[in-house]
Design brief:
- The protein is α/β, with parallel strands linked by helices.
- 37% of the residues lie in helices and 16% in strands.
- It contains 28 helices and 26 strands.
- Strands 4-7-12-13-14-25-24 form a seven-stranded mixed sheet. Strands 9-8-11-10 form a four-stranded parallel sheet.
- The longest helix has 25 residues.
- The termini are far apart.
């Protein structure tokens, strides 16, 4: 068998660069350079946009399994042509893969680690078998259930840069056996380690002293941690499993972990990138997790304990100040200890900040007022309707019993309902920009569908993930700039009004939203394009059609590239100050300063600079423009319901913002949309009242005054300041026509 590899011709790339201008938003190029441009050591510089897109497209197109088995000329020609169209689409910023793909696709890390292309994962906190996975503790049989497994999964995926949703509902927690053993944990470190002093301060023990005192003893388990991600995971797994007789085959109650070989703070991490945190966060985490489980000897760990352990893991992963750690904890809706756990302020500030917390509900649930009260107080909990997720795709397609019956939870942002071990798999289309650049939207959604489908052919590290991914082939084709698109094509927002109606089940009076029929047609045609593309490609690849296909993700940095409104959300304001934080050593700061952008030290983090960008939203001066600060809570719920009904067969991520006088409407709106919205969360609209808030609304006059102080193009100035770098591409941000762009 002969493999083939698709590569993009440089002449074609040069042709696209001549004819297509990337639709950079005001923050686009800076966000790209700061977030997604990989360092090229052979050129002593970071990537330029065309190099990033080439890497990403080639990394994806070569996942097509037909290329590994003496492919026909027709297949090679088909995929070569598709790679060209994908390059043009992404280069112009009419669509992009997820941020994970922009960073990892086409790298050696992707080729070594199939999990790396997926943003977020879900796992149930209950004893599970490791199976044929890249991590398997040597004291366990692969088919033996162990409580450490889901925590190992969380730890591993967070350290790979993903986010993890996890379930601590009572059905899972009750499967955990009682804690049998109190474990005596000792962490040792050699004096030669650069981390010695800091680790000893946290409770570690001098290795040589420990050896002297224990040279004639063998009543302990000793583990010398290798300087790897897997080493950290296995140390935590051994600690957890020793508390239970079934997973403690040596029946010992003393554990000694040797951290002498772990690289010190600031050392380079190859592969994923970034710098090491040193062993100190691990030391702190291990002692604290041990205390949690030791306190439950003779009884069971609780949903709060399970959440705390995941939060401590997340805190440890973040400690290097490189990787983020997104977690969502899903608990039972009647578990008051879980629901109120963030009211303990000391633990909140110590580690419980690491997850957003939501509760699982079903069709019979009616206890919304306590949830609404919590939301009014601190924005939590969110709500995840597992009944809807398991039995519905798009709401308009009606009840389909068990269509997605293995769903147990969701990813941290709530846009994809997931089974145990399953990840989300995302691609983002900016339909307003695509239309502006002359693309046929059916073609765009077809390319997006095929891109995500190929990701499901990665080599995944965990057996639990491989089994569910290859079965479900779940994809998530998303849209951003939805408000820009609807306003541009309809001339107004999709919710055109409300009419008096009666809830058929409860008899309650409701205000039923009225949707523009053309808006319904727009999203239904897009949905059908995705379904058709999946059917055709699944047949060609001889694999299962995707169980679900479409979503609306919250977006964020990816939407900033193109200057689009984020996901389904309304622009935060027509005019605003967007604050972005940079490490004080970031070379972009010098160029931003030269162009006149205001910056100041970040009041929340040391060695961090906060830069202010004045932005204008697309259609900011239209009489039908609405922002998060002006649109009603009713219209936001109605808009999410519109997308869940006609576009998304997965879910729709939405953070509804509400004014102080709207909080008493939350309960009735939850009830009204209980059979439509699969997951949602709410936050008060702060309107920039927080000091150095990420977004601060301003008026048009202030915007124009701030813009007048800015001169020059950041990309051009950056290139001039780094004129020793060859082949640097000058990106003209003023070419953008919409999104958060300058007034011309």
């Amino acid at each position: 068998m002969k493999n083939a590899r698709i590569s993009l011709d440089q002449a074609y790339i040069d042709q696209v660069k001549q004819n297509v201008s990337p639709h950079w938003g005001e923050l686009g190029w800076v966000t790209y350079k700061r977030t997604y441009a990989r360092w090229l050591p052979e050129y002593n510089r970071a990537e330029e946009w065309d190099e990033t897109v080439k890497r990403v497209v080639e990394g994806n197109i070569n996942l097509d399994p037909r290329l590994t088995n003496s492919p026909s000329e027709d297949v090679v020609e088909e995929l070569t042509d598709e790679a060209k169209r994908l390059f043009k689409l992404i280069y112009g910023l009419a669509s992009t893969p997820s941020g994970r793909n922009l960073w990892v696709s086409g790298t050696d890390y992707q080729r070594r680690n199939g999990d790396s292309l997926n943003n977020c994962w879900f796992i149930a906190i209950k004893p599970q078998k490791y199976g044929d996975s890249h991590i398997l503790p040597d004291y366990l049989d692969k088919n033996q259930e162990a409580l450490s497994m889901p925590f190992s999964f969380v730890f591993d995926q967070l350290m790979k840069g993903g986010g993890v949703g996890f379930s601590v509902v009572q059905d899972n927690i009750q499967k955990i056996p009682s804690v049998d053993n109190k474990i005596d944990l000792t962490i040792v470190i050699d004096k030669a380690s650069a981390s010695y002093d800091d680790s000893v301060k946290l409770g570690a023990t001098d290795k040589s002293e420990w050896v002297k005192q224990n040279q004639n003893s063998d009543d302990y388990i000793y583990y010398d941690l290798p300087d790897t991600r897997e080493g950290w995971v296995l140390a935590n797994a051994r600690l957890i499993d020793m508390h239970f007789k079934e997973t403690n085959p040596e029946n010992k109650q003393k554990l000694v972990l040797d951290i002498s070989g772990i690289r010190p703070y600031g050392a380079k991490i190859h592969g994923f990138g970034g710098t090491a945190s040193g062993p100190m966060p691990l030391v702190e985490m291990l002692f604290e997790i041990n205390d949690i489980i030791n306190n439950r000897v003779g009884t069971k760990i609780t949903s709060v304990d399970g959440t705390d352990i995941c939060n401590l893991i997340g805190k440890t992963v973040v400690a290097g100040n490189v990787r983020r750690s997104a977690e969502l904890a899903l608990g039972s809706n009647d578990d008051q200890d879980f629901i109120t756990m963030k009211q303990d302020k000391d633990k909140l500030y110590h580690h419980r900040w690491a997850s957003n917390n939501s509760v699982a509900i079903d069709a019979q649930f009616d206890g919304y007022e306590p949830i609404a009260a919590g939301i009014r107080e601190n924005g939590e909990p969110g709500v995840v309707n597992l009944d809807l997720s398991r039995n519905y795709g798009r709401i308009i397609d009606g009840y389909q019993e068990g269509i997605d019956g293995e769903v147990e939870g969701t990813n941290p942002c709530g846009e994809i309902s997931l089974a145990n071990g399953e990840p989300c798999n995302l691609f983002e289309v900016f339909p307003y920009i695509a239309e502006e650049q002359g693309w046929d939207l059916k073609e765009v959604f077809k390319l997006a569908t095929r891109y995500t489908k190929r990701v499901t052919f990665s080599e995944y590290d965990w057996e639990v993930s491989r089994n569910i991914i290859y079965k479900n082939r779940r994809i998530g084709v998303s849209m951003s700039g939805i408000q820009d698109w609807l306003l541009n094509d309809l001339g107004h927002r999709v919710v055109t009004g409300f009419e008096d109606s009666i809830d058929e089940e409860t008899g309650a009076k409701i205000k039923k939203p009225i949707y523009d029929p053309k808006g319904i047609k727009m999203v239904e045609e897009a949905y059908q394009a995705v379904i058709d593309a999946d059917q055709d490609y699944s047949k060609a690849l001889n694999c299962n059609p995707s169980i679900k296909h479409t979503t609306v993700k919250p977006s964020g940095t990816v939407a900033k590239l193109a200057g689009a409104s984020e996901g389904m959300h309304f622009h935060y304001a027509g005019y605003l100050i967007q604050r972005i934080r940079f490490q004080a050593s970031d070379p972009l700061l010098k160029a931003l300063d030269a162009c006149g952008y205001y910056s100041e030290p970040d009041i929340y983090s040391p060695n961090t600079i906060c830069v202010e960008f004045p932005l204008r939203a697309a259609h900011a001066d239209s009489k039908n423009f609405a922002s998060a600060g002006t649109v009603s809570i009713e219209e936001q719920f109605a808009t999410q319901a519109f997308l869940q009904t006609y576009w998304s067969d997965n879910a729709v991520s939405c953070t509804v913002t509400f004014q102080s006088n709207e909080g008493d409407k939350i309960t009735s709106l939850f009830k009204q949309y209980r059979n439509v919205i699969k997951s949602t969360s709410l936050l008060p609209y702060y309107g920039g009242s927080l000091e150095q808030a990420p977004k601060e609304p301003i008026d048009k006059k202030t915007y124009e005054e701030r813009k007048a102080k800015i001169s020059g193009d950041v990309a051009t100035v950056f290139a001039e300041q780094h004129d020793d770098q060859k082949d640097i591409e000058l990106v003209d941000q003023t070419d953008c026509e919409s999104g958060a762009c300058p007034v011309k």
